[in-house]
Amino acid sequence: MSDILIIGSGISGLMAAIKLAREHRVKVVSSGYGYSSLSTGNISFLNSSFCCGDVISSMGKLLKDHLYRVFDLVDLASIPPVVDILVSNQDGQNRYIPTAGGFFYPCYLVQRTMLKGDLEYLKRRRVGVLHSHYLAGSLKYVAEQRFGVSLDVEGYPYDQRRNLSEQIKELRRAEVVGIPPLPVIDPDLTHRHIEELEESTDKEIFEYISLNPSYPALRLLHSLRKAALQAGASLEAQDTGRYARIVGSRTMDNLVEAVYTLSCSYQADYYVLATGNLISGGLETFLDLEKEEVRAKEPIFGLPVIGEPEVAFHLAGDSSSEVTRSLAQGRMSKNVEDGPIRGTGDRKNGMQKDKGHLATMKTSILGSVEFRVEKSSSHPITRLRAKVDESFRTSLNNLYAIGSLVGGCELRGASDISGFSYLSGLALGSRLHL
Protein backbone atom coordinates (compact mmCIF):
# COMPACT_ATOMS: atom_id res chain seq x y z
CA MET A 1 0.00 0.00 0.00
CA SER A 2 1.44 3.34 -1.11
CA ASP A 3 0.77 6.96 -0.18
CA ILE A 4 -0.62 8.87 -3.15
CA LEU A 5 -1.23 12.62 -3.30
CA ILE A 6 -3.65 13.85 -5.95
CA ILE A 7 -3.40 17.56 -6.72
CA GLY A 8 -6.71 18.79 -8.11
CA SER A 9 -10.32 17.89 -7.32
CA GLY A 10 -11.92 18.13 -10.73
CA ILE A 11 -13.43 15.23 -12.66
CA SER A 12 -10.12 13.51 -13.48
CA GLY A 13 -8.60 13.86 -10.01
CA LEU A 14 -11.68 12.55 -8.25
CA MET A 15 -12.10 9.66 -10.69
CA ALA A 16 -8.52 8.59 -9.98
CA ALA A 17 -9.10 8.94 -6.23
CA ILE A 18 -12.20 6.73 -6.33
CA LYS A 19 -10.22 3.89 -7.93
CA LEU A 20 -6.87 4.30 -6.17
CA ALA A 21 -8.29 4.66 -2.65
CA ARG A 22 -9.45 1.05 -2.69
CA GLU A 23 -5.87 -0.20 -2.54
CA HIS A 24 -3.80 2.79 -1.39
CA ARG A 25 -3.75 5.69 1.05
CA VAL A 26 -4.99 8.60 -1.04
CA LYS A 27 -5.20 12.30 -0.22
CA VAL A 28 -6.74 14.86 -2.57
CA VAL A 29 -5.72 18.51 -2.21
CA SER A 30 -7.21 21.41 -4.12
CA SER A 31 -7.47 25.18 -3.99
CA GLY A 32 -10.87 25.41 -5.67
CA TYR A 33 -13.40 23.94 -8.06
CA GLY A 34 -11.57 24.57 -11.33
CA TYR A 35 -12.90 24.34 -14.87
CA SER A 36 -14.89 21.16 -14.12
CA SER A 37 -17.38 23.32 -12.22
CA LEU A 38 -18.23 25.14 -15.47
CA SER A 39 -19.10 22.01 -17.46
CA THR A 40 -22.56 20.73 -18.39
CA GLY A 41 -22.51 18.23 -15.54
CA ASN A 42 -22.81 15.43 -18.10
CA ILE A 43 -20.02 13.41 -19.74
CA SER A 44 -19.51 13.60 -23.50
CA PHE A 45 -17.18 11.36 -25.51
CA LEU A 46 -17.89 12.16 -29.18
CA ASN A 47 -20.08 14.79 -30.78
CA SER A 48 -22.76 14.11 -33.36
CA SER A 49 -20.68 15.08 -36.40
CA PHE A 50 -17.95 12.59 -35.49
CA CYS A 51 -20.11 9.79 -34.11
CA CYS A 52 -21.98 7.45 -36.44
CA GLY A 53 -24.31 5.20 -34.49
CA ASP A 54 -22.86 3.53 -31.43
CA VAL A 55 -20.47 5.84 -29.56
CA ILE A 56 -18.14 3.09 -28.35
CA SER A 57 -17.86 1.53 -31.80
CA SER A 58 -17.12 4.94 -33.26
CA MET A 59 -14.40 5.53 -30.67
CA GLY A 60 -12.79 2.27 -31.72
CA LYS A 61 -12.48 3.59 -35.28
CA LEU A 62 -10.63 6.76 -34.31
CA LEU A 63 -7.22 7.48 -35.78
CA LYS A 64 -4.26 6.12 -33.86
CA ASP A 65 -3.08 9.59 -32.88
CA HIS A 66 -6.39 10.48 -31.25
CA LEU A 67 -5.90 10.81 -27.50
CA TYR A 68 -8.58 8.21 -26.76
CA ARG A 69 -6.45 5.74 -28.73
CA VAL A 70 -3.04 7.01 -27.58
CA PHE A 71 -3.97 6.38 -23.94
CA ASP A 72 -6.06 3.26 -24.72
CA LEU A 73 -9.28 4.67 -23.25
CA VAL A 74 -11.84 3.28 -25.70
CA ASP A 75 -12.75 0.11 -23.79
CA LEU A 76 -13.21 2.07 -20.56
CA ALA A 77 -16.02 4.13 -22.09
CA SER A 78 -18.41 1.17 -21.91
CA ILE A 79 -17.94 0.69 -18.16
CA PRO A 80 -21.06 1.71 -16.16
CA PRO A 81 -20.86 5.13 -14.45
CA VAL A 82 -19.03 5.16 -11.12
CA VAL A 83 -21.72 7.38 -9.53
CA ASP A 84 -25.47 6.88 -9.76
CA ILE A 85 -26.14 10.52 -10.62
CA LEU A 86 -25.12 9.62 -14.20
CA VAL A 87 -26.99 7.28 -16.55
CA SER A 88 -25.63 5.73 -19.74
CA ASN A 89 -27.71 4.98 -22.83
CA GLN A 90 -28.38 1.25 -23.21
CA ASP A 91 -28.18 1.44 -27.01
CA GLY A 92 -24.71 2.99 -26.77
CA GLN A 93 -25.61 6.24 -28.51
CA ASN A 94 -25.52 9.87 -27.46
CA ARG A 95 -28.49 11.56 -25.92
CA TYR A 96 -29.19 15.09 -27.16
CA ILE A 97 -30.14 17.46 -24.35
CA PRO A 98 -31.58 20.97 -24.92
CA THR A 99 -29.49 23.96 -23.90
CA ALA A 100 -30.36 27.52 -22.97
CA GLY A 101 -28.49 28.52 -26.12
CA GLY A 102 -31.10 26.90 -28.33
CA PHE A 103 -29.36 23.74 -29.53
CA PHE A 104 -29.09 20.09 -28.50
CA TYR A 105 -25.88 19.00 -26.79
CA PRO A 106 -24.60 15.42 -27.32
CA CYS A 107 -24.02 13.64 -24.00
CA TYR A 108 -23.17 10.00 -23.35
CA LEU A 109 -23.51 9.93 -19.54
CA VAL A 110 -26.45 12.11 -18.53
CA GLN A 111 -27.67 13.30 -15.14
CA ARG A 112 -30.98 11.76 -14.12
CA THR A 113 -32.73 15.13 -13.85
CA MET A 114 -31.99 15.78 -17.55
CA LEU A 115 -33.00 12.39 -18.97
CA LYS A 116 -36.49 13.45 -20.04
CA GLY A 117 -34.92 16.21 -22.10
CA ASP A 118 -33.46 13.71 -24.58
CA LEU A 119 -34.60 14.64 -28.08
CA GLU A 120 -35.61 11.04 -28.76
CA TYR A 121 -37.99 11.26 -25.78
CA LEU A 122 -39.27 14.76 -26.58
CA LYS A 123 -40.16 14.16 -30.21
CA ARG A 124 -43.19 12.06 -29.26
CA ARG A 125 -44.59 14.62 -26.79
CA ARG A 126 -45.80 18.21 -26.48
CA VAL A 127 -42.90 20.17 -25.02
CA GLY A 128 -42.64 23.40 -23.05
CA VAL A 129 -39.57 25.36 -21.99
CA LEU A 130 -39.50 27.82 -19.14
CA HIS A 131 -37.10 30.37 -20.57
CA SER A 132 -38.39 32.47 -23.45
CA HIS A 133 -40.31 32.19 -26.69
CA TYR A 134 -36.99 32.63 -28.47
CA LEU A 135 -35.62 29.41 -26.96
CA ALA A 136 -38.70 27.45 -27.97
CA GLY A 137 -38.40 28.65 -31.55
CA SER A 138 -34.68 27.94 -31.68
CA LEU A 139 -35.06 24.38 -30.38
CA LYS A 140 -37.84 23.72 -32.87
CA TYR A 141 -35.70 25.02 -35.73
CA VAL A 142 -32.57 23.07 -34.73
CA ALA A 143 -34.53 19.85 -34.19
CA GLU A 144 -35.96 20.08 -37.71
CA GLN A 145 -32.88 21.32 -39.55
CA ARG A 146 -30.23 19.26 -37.78
CA PHE A 147 -32.09 16.07 -36.83
CA GLY A 148 -35.11 16.02 -39.14
CA VAL A 149 -37.46 15.99 -36.14
CA SER A 150 -40.68 18.00 -36.00
CA LEU A 151 -40.77 19.18 -32.40
CA ASP A 152 -43.96 20.57 -30.86
CA VAL A 153 -42.56 23.11 -28.39
CA GLU A 154 -43.80 26.29 -26.72
CA GLY A 155 -42.07 28.73 -24.39
CA TYR A 156 -42.97 30.85 -21.40
CA PRO A 157 -40.78 33.66 -19.96
CA TYR A 158 -39.03 32.54 -16.80
CA ASP A 159 -39.10 34.87 -13.79
CA GLN A 160 -37.04 33.70 -10.82
CA ARG A 161 -39.07 35.94 -8.52
CA ARG A 162 -42.25 33.97 -9.16
CA ASN A 163 -43.26 30.55 -7.90
CA LEU A 164 -41.71 27.93 -10.18
CA SER A 165 -44.67 25.57 -10.05
CA GLU A 166 -47.10 28.30 -11.07
CA GLN A 167 -44.94 29.24 -14.05
CA ILE A 168 -44.80 25.63 -15.22
CA LYS A 169 -48.60 25.48 -15.13
CA GLU A 170 -48.72 28.39 -17.60
CA LEU A 171 -47.46 25.94 -20.24
CA ARG A 172 -50.90 24.37 -20.41
CA ARG A 173 -50.43 22.29 -23.57
CA ALA A 174 -47.07 20.86 -22.59
CA GLU A 175 -46.68 17.30 -21.35
CA VAL A 176 -42.95 17.69 -20.69
CA VAL A 177 -41.43 20.94 -19.44
CA GLY A 178 -37.79 22.02 -19.42
CA ILE A 179 -36.70 24.30 -16.59
CA PRO A 180 -33.42 26.05 -15.72
CA PRO A 181 -31.18 23.93 -13.46
CA LEU A 182 -32.34 24.18 -9.87
CA PRO A 183 -29.85 26.07 -7.63
CA VAL A 184 -29.25 22.95 -5.54
CA ILE A 185 -25.96 21.04 -5.26
CA ASP A 186 -27.10 17.90 -3.45
CA PRO A 187 -28.23 15.38 -6.14
CA ASP A 188 -30.79 13.60 -3.95
CA LEU A 189 -32.39 16.86 -2.88
CA THR A 190 -32.54 18.00 -6.51
CA HIS A 191 -34.27 14.78 -7.54
CA ARG A 192 -36.85 15.20 -4.76
CA HIS A 193 -37.57 18.77 -5.86
CA ILE A 194 -38.14 17.58 -9.43
CA GLU A 195 -40.52 14.87 -8.21
CA GLU A 196 -42.46 17.43 -6.15
CA LEU A 197 -42.76 19.72 -9.17
CA GLU A 198 -44.03 16.85 -11.30
CA GLU A 199 -46.62 15.96 -8.68
CA SER A 200 -47.83 19.54 -8.20
CA THR A 201 -48.03 20.37 -11.92
CA ASP A 202 -49.02 16.98 -13.35
CA LYS A 203 -46.26 17.34 -15.95
CA GLU A 204 -42.94 15.64 -16.59
CA ILE A 205 -39.99 17.87 -15.76
CA PHE A 206 -36.38 18.01 -16.91
CA GLU A 207 -33.53 20.45 -16.44
CA TYR A 208 -31.98 21.81 -19.61
CA ILE A 209 -28.30 22.69 -19.90
CA SER A 210 -27.87 26.30 -18.88
CA LEU A 211 -25.23 28.97 -18.54
CA ASN A 212 -22.90 29.31 -15.58
CA PRO A 213 -22.98 28.91 -12.69
CA SER A 214 -23.45 25.25 -13.57
CA TYR A 215 -25.28 23.61 -10.69
CA PRO A 216 -25.36 20.25 -12.52
CA ALA A 217 -21.54 20.39 -12.69
CA LEU A 218 -21.35 21.11 -8.97
CA ARG A 219 -23.69 18.17 -8.33
CA LEU A 220 -21.45 15.87 -10.35
CA LEU A 221 -18.39 16.99 -8.38
CA HIS A 222 -20.35 16.57 -5.14
CA SER A 223 -21.17 12.97 -6.11
CA LEU A 224 -17.59 12.20 -7.12
CA ARG A 225 -16.23 13.63 -3.88
CA LYS A 226 -18.71 11.59 -1.88
CA ALA A 227 -17.68 8.44 -3.75
CA ALA A 228 -13.99 9.21 -3.18
CA LEU A 229 -14.56 9.61 0.55
CA GLN A 230 -16.54 6.37 0.69
CA ALA A 231 -13.67 4.61 -1.08
CA GLY A 232 -11.32 5.76 1.68
CA ALA A 233 -9.67 8.89 0.27
CA SER A 234 -9.17 11.99 2.39
CA LEU A 235 -10.10 15.29 0.84
CA GLU A 236 -8.84 18.81 1.38
CA ALA A 237 -10.84 20.87 -1.09
CA GLN A 238 -12.98 23.97 -1.13
CA ASP A 239 -16.28 22.39 -0.13
CA THR A 240 -14.73 20.68 2.90
CA GLY A 241 -13.51 23.90 4.50
CA ARG A 242 -9.92 22.62 4.26
CA TYR A 243 -8.20 23.47 1.02
CA ALA A 244 -4.64 24.05 -0.07
CA ARG A 245 -3.03 25.77 -3.03
CA ILE A 246 0.14 23.97 -4.03
CA VAL A 247 2.73 26.57 -5.00
CA GLY A 248 5.96 24.59 -5.39
CA SER A 249 7.78 21.28 -5.17
CA ARG A 250 11.10 19.68 -4.25
CA THR A 251 12.62 17.08 -6.54
CA MET A 252 15.78 14.97 -6.46
CA ASP A 253 17.11 12.19 -8.71
CA ASN A 254 14.11 12.59 -11.03
CA LEU A 255 11.66 11.98 -8.18
CA VAL A 256 9.25 14.29 -6.41
CA GLU A 257 10.11 14.46 -2.71
CA ALA A 258 7.49 16.97 -1.53
CA VAL A 259 5.06 19.68 -2.60
CA TYR A 260 4.36 22.90 -0.75
CA THR A 261 1.62 25.34 0.07
CA LEU A 262 2.39 28.71 1.63
CA SER A 263 2.08 27.18 5.09
CA CYS A 264 2.80 23.44 4.93
CA SER A 265 4.20 20.59 2.85
CA TYR A 266 2.89 17.23 1.65
CA GLN A 267 4.93 14.10 1.06
CA ALA A 268 3.88 10.90 -0.69
CA ASP A 269 5.27 7.94 -2.59
CA TYR A 270 3.47 8.93 -5.77
CA TYR A 271 1.84 12.12 -7.03
CA VAL A 272 -0.99 12.68 -9.50
CA LEU A 273 -1.33 16.09 -11.11
CA ALA A 274 -4.89 16.95 -12.16
CA THR A 275 -4.80 20.73 -12.07
CA GLY A 276 -6.42 21.42 -15.43
CA ASN A 277 -5.24 23.50 -18.35
CA LEU A 278 -4.66 27.22 -18.80
CA ILE A 279 -8.23 28.09 -17.84
CA SER A 280 -7.94 26.32 -14.48
CA GLY A 281 -4.41 27.51 -13.73
CA GLY A 282 -2.73 24.17 -14.34
CA LEU A 283 -0.68 25.81 -17.10
CA GLU A 284 0.59 29.36 -17.48
CA THR A 285 1.80 31.56 -20.31
CA PHE A 286 4.32 34.29 -19.65
CA LEU A 287 6.73 36.65 -21.32
CA ASP A 288 10.35 35.60 -20.89
CA LEU A 289 12.09 38.95 -20.49
CA GLU A 290 15.58 37.57 -21.08
CA LYS A 291 14.84 35.59 -24.24
CA GLU A 292 12.16 38.03 -25.40
CA GLU A 293 9.73 35.26 -26.23
CA VAL A 294 6.43 33.92 -25.01
CA ARG A 295 6.61 30.63 -23.16
CA ALA A 296 4.26 28.24 -21.39
CA LYS A 297 4.94 26.41 -18.16
CA GLU A 298 3.43 24.00 -15.70
CA PRO A 299 3.90 26.06 -12.52
CA ILE A 300 4.35 23.41 -9.80
CA PHE A 301 6.88 20.98 -11.29
CA GLY A 302 8.06 22.79 -14.41
CA LEU A 303 6.88 20.00 -16.72
CA PRO A 304 7.41 20.32 -20.49
CA VAL A 305 4.43 21.86 -22.30
CA ILE A 306 3.20 21.11 -25.83
CA GLY A 307 1.25 23.68 -27.84
CA GLU A 308 1.33 27.24 -29.13
CA PRO A 309 2.01 29.55 -26.18
CA GLU A 310 2.35 32.66 -28.35
CA VAL A 311 -1.25 32.44 -29.53
CA ALA A 312 -2.58 31.60 -26.08
CA PHE A 313 -0.61 34.52 -24.63
CA HIS A 314 -2.11 36.91 -27.13
CA LEU A 315 -5.64 35.76 -26.36
CA ALA A 316 -5.45 35.32 -22.59
CA GLY A 317 -2.63 37.62 -21.58
CA ASP A 318 0.10 36.68 -19.17
CA SER A 319 -1.51 34.08 -16.91
CA SER A 320 1.31 34.06 -14.38
CA SER A 321 1.54 36.42 -11.43
CA GLU A 322 4.31 38.43 -13.09
CA VAL A 323 2.13 40.56 -15.33
CA THR A 324 -1.17 42.24 -14.49
CA ARG A 325 -3.71 42.11 -17.27
CA SER A 326 -7.13 43.32 -18.26
CA LEU A 327 -8.89 40.92 -20.60
CA ALA A 328 -11.86 43.21 -21.00
CA GLN A 329 -9.75 46.03 -22.44
CA GLY A 330 -7.36 43.72 -24.25
CA ARG A 331 -4.28 45.19 -22.60
CA MET A 332 -1.48 43.86 -20.44
CA SER A 333 1.51 45.70 -19.00
CA LYS A 334 4.48 45.35 -16.66
CA ASN A 335 6.86 48.00 -15.46
CA VAL A 336 10.50 46.90 -15.69
CA GLU A 337 13.81 48.72 -15.51
CA ASP A 338 13.85 49.35 -19.24
CA GLY A 339 10.33 50.76 -19.21
CA PRO A 340 6.84 49.34 -19.63
CA ILE A 341 6.17 46.31 -21.79
CA ARG A 342 2.77 46.49 -23.37
CA GLY A 343 0.75 44.15 -25.49
CA THR A 344 -2.57 44.99 -27.05
CA GLY A 345 -5.03 43.00 -29.06
CA ASP A 346 -8.64 42.87 -30.13
CA ARG A 347 -10.27 40.11 -28.08
CA LYS A 348 -13.81 40.71 -29.26
CA ASN A 349 -13.50 37.94 -31.82
CA GLY A 350 -10.70 36.02 -30.15
CA MET A 351 -8.60 35.75 -33.31
CA GLN A 352 -8.77 37.30 -36.74
CA LYS A 353 -8.90 35.05 -39.79
CA ASP A 354 -6.51 36.11 -42.54
CA LYS A 355 -6.42 34.17 -45.82
CA GLY A 356 -6.78 30.75 -44.28
CA HIS A 357 -4.58 31.48 -41.29
CA LEU A 358 -5.12 32.82 -37.81
CA ALA A 359 -3.26 36.11 -37.46
CA THR A 360 -2.08 37.27 -34.06
CA MET A 361 0.76 39.22 -32.47
CA LYS A 362 3.76 38.42 -30.30
CA THR A 363 4.78 40.99 -27.70
CA SER A 364 8.43 41.73 -27.05
CA ILE A 365 10.62 44.53 -25.77
CA LEU A 366 11.19 45.47 -29.39
CA GLY A 367 7.49 45.93 -30.02
CA SER A 368 4.74 43.89 -31.65
CA VAL A 369 5.79 41.36 -34.27
CA GLU A 370 3.24 39.66 -36.51
CA PHE A 371 3.37 35.92 -36.99
CA ARG A 372 1.06 33.22 -38.28
CA VAL A 373 -0.13 29.79 -37.25
CA GLU A 374 -2.13 27.29 -39.24
CA LYS A 375 -5.85 27.04 -38.63
CA SER A 376 -6.90 24.44 -36.10
CA SER A 377 -10.19 22.93 -34.97
CA SER A 378 -9.44 23.63 -31.31
CA HIS A 379 -8.82 26.83 -29.40
CA PRO A 380 -5.17 27.72 -28.68
CA ILE A 381 -5.91 28.58 -25.06
CA THR A 382 -7.04 25.03 -24.38
CA ARG A 383 -4.68 23.32 -26.81
CA LEU A 384 -1.67 23.73 -24.53
CA ARG A 385 -0.95 20.53 -22.61
CA ALA A 386 1.68 18.93 -20.43
CA LYS A 387 3.81 16.19 -21.97
CA VAL A 388 3.32 12.64 -20.63
CA ASP A 389 3.89 9.11 -21.91
CA GLU A 390 1.16 6.60 -22.78
CA SER A 391 0.77 5.60 -19.12
CA PHE A 392 0.32 9.25 -18.03
CA ARG A 393 3.79 9.31 -16.47
CA THR A 394 5.59 12.65 -16.66
CA SER A 395 9.32 13.31 -16.91
CA LEU A 396 9.47 12.69 -13.14
CA ASN A 397 9.31 8.99 -12.31
CA ASN A 398 6.77 9.18 -9.47
CA LEU A 399 4.57 11.89 -10.95
CA TYR A 400 1.56 11.26 -13.22
CA ALA A 401 -0.66 13.81 -14.95
CA ILE A 402 -4.25 13.39 -16.15
CA GLY A 403 -7.29 15.31 -17.33
CA SER A 404 -7.31 18.49 -19.38
CA LEU A 405 -3.75 19.19 -18.23
CA VAL A 406 -2.61 16.52 -20.71
CA GLY A 407 -5.68 16.38 -22.94
CA GLY A 408 -6.02 20.01 -23.89
CA CYS A 409 -8.70 20.10 -26.57
CA GLU A 410 -6.91 18.00 -29.16
CA LEU A 411 -9.83 15.57 -29.02
CA ARG A 412 -11.04 15.88 -32.59
CA GLY A 413 -14.74 15.21 -32.76
CA ALA A 414 -15.28 15.52 -29.00
CA SER A 415 -17.93 17.83 -27.58
CA ASP A 416 -15.76 18.97 -24.69
CA ILE A 417 -12.95 17.79 -22.43
CA SER A 418 -15.21 16.05 -19.87
CA GLY A 419 -14.95 12.66 -21.57
CA PHE A 420 -11.16 12.65 -21.58
CA SER A 421 -11.02 13.87 -17.98
CA TYR A 422 -13.44 11.15 -16.90
CA LEU A 423 -11.66 8.35 -18.77
CA SER A 424 -8.09 9.41 -17.99
CA GLY A 425 -8.85 9.46 -14.26
CA LEU A 426 -10.56 6.10 -14.54
CA ALA A 427 -7.66 4.67 -16.55
CA LEU A 428 -4.94 5.80 -14.15
CA GLY A 429 -6.90 4.63 -11.14
CA SER A 430 -7.57 1.22 -12.68
CA ARG A 431 -4.15 0.54 -14.21
CA LEU A 432 -1.70 2.03 -11.74
CA HIS A 433 -0.32 -0.98 -9.86
CA LEU A 434 2.26 0.27 -7.39
UniProtKB/TrEMBL annotation:
Superkingdom of the source species: Bacteria
FAD-dependent oxidoreductase 2 FAD-binding domain ranges (all copies): 3-47
Gene3D superfamilies, per database record: FAD/NAD(P)-binding domain (3.50.50.60)
Any one GO molecular-function label of the UniProt entry: oxidoreductase activity
Keywords: Flavoprotein, Oxidoreductase
Classification via InterPro entries: FAD-dep_OxRdtase_2_FAD-bd, FAD/NAD-bd_sf
Protein name: FAD-dependent oxidoreductase 2 FAD-binding domain-containing protein
Organism name: Candidatus Hakubella thermalkaliphila
